[in-house]
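Thread: quick sanity check before group meeting

JM: Hey all, I'm pulling together slides for Thursday and realized we never actually wrote out the predicted structure for the chain we discussed last week. Dropping the sequence here so it's in one place. If anyone has concerns about the input, flag it before I start.
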Amino acid sequence: MALIIMTDDGIRFDGRMAESEPLGGAETAFVGLAEGFAARGHRVLAFSNGAQAIEHRGVQWRPISEGPPKSADLYVANRGDKLLSLVPRARSVAFWIHNPARYLLKWRYLWKLVHRRPAIVFCGVFHASTYPGWAPAGSRVSIPYGISEVFRQTPPAQDPPPPRAVFTSNPTRSLDWLLDLWVEQIRPRVPGAELHVFSGLRTYGAMGTAKAAEMLPVLERARALGDSGIVLRDPVAKQELAVEMARMRAYLYRGDPGEAFCTSAGEAQAMGLPAVVQNIACMAERVDDGITGHVAADRDEFARAAVRILTDDGLWRAQHAAALARKRNFGWIDAAAQFEALFLGRHDAPAIAA
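JM (edit): ok, ran it. Output follows.
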């Protein structure tokens, strides 16, 4: 059993909140990995801006304000540069990042990376490519996100649902673009089709409040398009979202240059939802083109693919089955095993080098 310390100094969350509140991708990943480590028998101390000290699913959660111990077998600093100086006597240090890495090319990051020399953990091929070869790192590795157990265990749809699509990302990530396309090209060709938008400020905590001026106009536009089949829903916790996804027929999301993994696409594919995306950032890694969905070259191709998956039962059955077979198999216990192989010298799971 190893002592593993994980830290995050972003929005307020902990493992219990992850089951009752909507969370963003980076927070979902942090909780998932911590619980994956605990499930594999390790002692896990997770420090965050959570409100109180609790133990949940084998993870000991503590307020980051308490400060972590000085030593550990593995220390995982989650995205924040101020965290790199903590746990100074850790045997192994991983700096886990969740956005394209160009933001690290600032002096306030670079000098800390030179000093600490952590392994930088990326979540895929595209993500790793965003950090240039000259930039400092103790090592560079890629470990994909696991898929939360709720999306791997909730029963998926058995028969083709009605023409009901879903969007589950940040409203500033091309929701306006999708609303235009839905009104102009998709809904007119699929009368009665619905686009359910699970999106809002609540998912992003204080950050969502700070970005309200950007988010709210897009959400208000979605609300005003009810006559065009747009159904604006409040963000929900993962358990409820999985149940809702089982009622959906397709996942529609253009993609965003700021995505490194795209948790929402991973969750939808694990529920067997054929996805229509564009080849932006990491999206071609989440969706197997022509097999579990369609990676469109432009907006017209996106619209045609969306119409087809909303209306063609044979195509839906084939892509639904392929998504379930290919996209449900890697959970957070598997990701934790890969961290072990890389940082704790255990080799019961393959490590993936960047």
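AS: nice. The CA atoms of residues 216 and 308 lie 31 Å apart. Confidence is low (pLDDT under 50) at residues 349-354.
JM: adding both to the slides.
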